[in-house]
Amino acid sequence: MSANVNGVVTEEWTDQDYEVEMGNGWKELGLNFVQNKMAVIGGVIIILVIATALFAPFIAPYDPYKVNLKLQFQEPSAQFLLGTDMYGRDVLSRIIYGSRISLLIGLVPTLISMVIGAIIGMIAGYYRGKIDFILMSISDMVLSFPSLLLAMVVMYTLGASLINIFIALSVIGWAQTSRVVRAQTMSLKNKEFVEASRAIGVRDIVIMFRHILPNCISQLIVLFTLNIPSSILSEASLSFLGIGAQPPASSWGLMVSNGKEYLFNAPWVTISPGIAILIVVLAFNFFGDGLRDVLDPHLKH
């Protein structure tokens, strides 16, 4: 809205003007995202997998935990679309229920590591000095180890369980986030709005969480979507090695591990969950790439 004050035309924005501008911004982001066909396909697959995990009891044709040795190693057919495993359990039903574990392990440790990494990154980038040196040295130590090897050390130390998987994947995932948030914090801490807040006596913790963190959201969203497939693959690797999810859980990695001995006699037992892992990981990667191009196009290059 324009106003004429002493012959000078000025712009006066109302709440309605801000809402309209914000709506146009989101609309433009949505249109840009839709243009990326692979990202849209990835998003559709993710929605379908989430729906499958939520409604698994209604979708699964059989009980995934029911053992029937008379039906072991049944080939894929109209009755068992993906065949049965060494215990006569329906492979399709176990994959459907396994989507719950894979999504849970993909989302929860990633979210925990993002929160930890964001807090550490803001503290290091805002205060600098010795605090920055100590925190980033720890971050470099974590990043210097192969992630799977570090997760294996944690799992062997704590024992194989679902909770310990959360801890292990959170331990190896926060360092990358802290680096990204630290760099963003360093570029924002000397901006005018931060200096103005500091000048009027606003506390550091308020500045970090009210002014700096919101400006890191786009990078965090991109990292979140791209780190989920890494967590899923790490869980599958740990379960394949026998230190992840434990029987009778229908984890996809555990299914691949249990079926590897029968790869030539009953390949569907191993190949089916392996394909499920491949599809979900690719879907999250395509979706994350699309979000990166829309929310932070500078990272694209």
TrEMBL record:
Membrane spanning segments where?
A: 38-60, 103-127, 147-172, 265-287
> Which positions make up the signal peptide?
none
Question: What's its membrane topology?
Answer: Multi-pass membrane protein
Q: The ABC transmembrane type-1 domain covers which part of the protein? A: 99-288
Could you mention a single GO BP entry for this protein? Answer: transmembrane transport
State where the protein is found.
Cell membrane
Q: Which keywords fit this entry according to its UniProt record?
A: Cell membrane, Membrane, Transmembrane, Transmembrane helix, Transport
Q: Which SUPFAM superfamilies match?
A: MetI-like
Main localisation, per the record?
membrane
**InterPro entries in the record:** BP-dependent_transpt_permease (IPR050366), MetI-like (IPR000515), MetI-like_sf (IPR035906), OppC_N (IPR025966)
Per the record, its GO cellular-component terms are: plasma membrane
By sequence similarity, the record places it as follows: Belongs to the binding-protein-dependent transport system permease family.
What is the recorded name of this protein?
Peptide/nickel transport system permease protein
Natural source organism: Sporolactobacillus nakayamae
Instruction: Read off the lineage from the record.
Output: Bacteria, Bacillati, Bacillota, Bacilli, Bacillales
